[in-house]
Amino acid sequence: MATQDELNEDLAKAEEALAQAKAAVQARQALTEEQALAVDLHEMQCHFKGSMDCGWGWEQDWKGHEHKEYLRKAEKMLAVTDIATARKIVRIYRGF
Ligand SMILES: [Zn+2]
Predict the structure, then answer these.
(1) Is the pTM of this model over 0.70?
(2) Ligand 1 centre from 55 Cα, in Å?
(3) Which of 79, 39, 85, 89 lies closest to 59, judged by CA?
């Protein structure tokens, strides 16, 4: 059985993870449909995600090159289909 200190540490880590998850959900909910689709398209398509070759994580807002590029793709998709269909396509590609 874990010590009280270990349990307290586990609880603190879990609470921190919960707070981060809640913040991520709130940030996602604050996006427009086009921005949310752009995020999904980037997750699906960027082969450099998480590396120095991907600017997504460095960019501060939607004016950054990579954010603008994926927002443009999302807008193009939504010009030819509705958001529900676009989301279904992304989910299929991502394997869900
Ligand atoms: Zn990227």
Answers:
(1) yes
(2) 6
(3) 39
Print pLDDT tens along the chain (96 aa).
899 999 999 999 999 999 999 999 999 999 999 999 999 999 999 988 888 889 998 998 999 999 999 999 999 999 999 999 999 999 998 887
Measured CA to CA, the distance from residue 58 to residue 85 in angstroms comes to 30
Query: How far does the centroid of ligand 1 lie from the alpha carbon of residue 49, in Å?
Result: 4
Tell how far the Cα of 45 is from the centroid of ligand 1, in angstroms: 8
Span from the CA of 44 to the centroid of ligand 1 (angstroms): 10
| 40 and 78 belong to one structural domain | yes
Q: Phi and psi for 90 in degrees, rounded to 5?
A: -60, -45
Quote the ligand 1 centre to 70 CA distance (angstroms). Answer: 9
> Are 59 and 86 members of one domain?
yes
For residue 12, the enclosing domain spans 1-30
The residue length of the chain stands at 96
Same domain, 51 and 69: yes
Report CA(60)–ligand 1 centroid distance (Å). Answer: 14
